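Cont'd.
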Amino acid sequence: MKDLVEKVTSGDVRTVARLIRDVDDGMPEVREALKALYPYTGRAYVIGITGAPGVGKSTLVDQMVAHLRKRGKTVGVLAVDPTSPFSGGAILGDRVRMQRHSMDPGVFIRSLATRGHFGGLTQSTRSAIDILDAMGKDVILVETVGVGQDEVDVVRSAHTTVIVVIPGMGDDIQAIKAGILEVGDIFLINKSDREGTDKTLAELRLMIEMDQRKHDEGLWKPPIIKVEAIFDKGVDDFLAAVDEHARYLEQTAGGLKSRRSPERVRQEMVEMIKARLFEEVLDKLTETGEFDRAVDAIVKGALDPYSACESLVFPALGGLPAEE
Amino acid sequence: MKDLVEKVTSGDVRTVARLIRDVDDGMPEVREALKALYPYTGRAYVIGITGAPGVGKSTLVDQMVAHLRKRGKTVGVLAVDPTSPFSGGAILGDRVRMQRHSMDPGVFIRSLATRGHFGGLTQSTRSAIDILDAMGKDVILVETVGVGQDEVDVVRSAHTTVIVVIPGMGDDIQAIKAGILEVGDIFLINKSDREGTDKTLAELRLMIEMDQRKHDEGLWKPPIIKVEAIFDKGVDDFLAAVDEHARYLEQTAGGLKSRRSPERVRQEMVEMIKARLFEEVLDKLTETGEFDRAVDAIVKGALDPYSACESLVFPALGGLPAEE
């Protein structure tokens, strides 16, 4: 274990790649490594990037890497992709665009696809962030595909969360925006050469203002930055906004440590406990055949799923009675 | 309880509305009602509708309701909206469009927003489907906002799952499509008067064909239907495709019961057990203050979250030792 810690902290690419793959595959052994690496974490600055499909997140991340490298920062990129529910693989297609950084030893890029291990994607992403952090990367970019609750949870692990939109996405986007509005530290309008940019800007501004009225204890006012990632326009302004947000965190929330605020730790622990409990209990229920018998009874219509659940859960907790 | 069952099965709107609200709010008492109602479920046909923001799902659902009503079917609609992580409310904005059906006693429309109760959105949606099913609705439409894993899980409860796309959504949509491709029974290209429809059609066709080669045991070939929901064009063709899929299920998978196939029941039980375990254990850990002490130690840097998790989980399971 000491050897592994030394390898990771000295930036050994193969060791880190294997560890992240083990996290993604939900290998139980990886937990001991994570415990040992934990004291070496807490140094990296984590930026989460989320937004609907088609807004150009990958292109943006690619440009961010280029700019951060010019500043002399080492960069880790985690592309959090949805898993196909049946085939179980990450979608690596647009990773290809990142190829221009693939020979740069200061850049480490990996995709995560996990679902159903260790508390799912959110937990795996946090563990992978810890590994890249222990590896010594200065900045970690976490890019998610999609705008569901999963993605929101994933980007909440970041110091700075960036919501990427494009002009004229139809009115359903309103609903999504409301759902993610409160997690956005910076809003980025990509493809801002397109028609409708001013309208989108005005809408976002209004939403942010309405939101601030509700939560006036939070003093950070999310800026809205216009970018054309593909032409490398506005990326500097955007990174300046990230710097400003980092300074804000430093002053108000204890800086880099804010990723470990009581609120966040609380939420992380809730998810981790949930996943671990289930893992331990399901192993037992599967071994004894109890789980299969319950499924069978439900399929046959002899049992309802609500009662079945109780008959499995309570004995697993040492025969706790079902009193409510 | 007998009174409640009678009210629900005779279609009492107020009782049903209250039950669904209780499900959404995660009230423990609702479980007893769900157990009692379960024998009255299994009759309704459930159609799941998912797709990225802006593809016009709400308009489509509105037209579907109108067509199904013309056929004499009673309809339940569940609009599954993302919850804002902080303010916790459903986004009901575009529900307004449904107003033309609001006076029709044959239509019952509700939004669900739950997260973090009873296993989250997926579980709440299933329970709400059960309630509308017991209420006697012939067809239940489940509309989700977004295309994340949550939404995929939600629509997997349906007999027929419809993936809605629009022409020209950029190339990130490819990643999403791959993630949801295998759950789609019908693909619908909405706004198909727009430029790029043929390209989208060709892409979808190719993806479906590639997918079928991988899974040739599944013989249903998802059709791709062109619709302009806002002009009520193509909706009949679409519903004919749903009918055809229902016939296919009838012949191959035991028809309506396929919502209770061993595979689906297994997955549902996994989620339900997970949620219930956590609920029972967290209550105890919160009461004794153990959870707060662990959070505190992590925030102070005195404990890593991985070890903290084990120190909380194992005693809760009756002191199971941490052997792996």
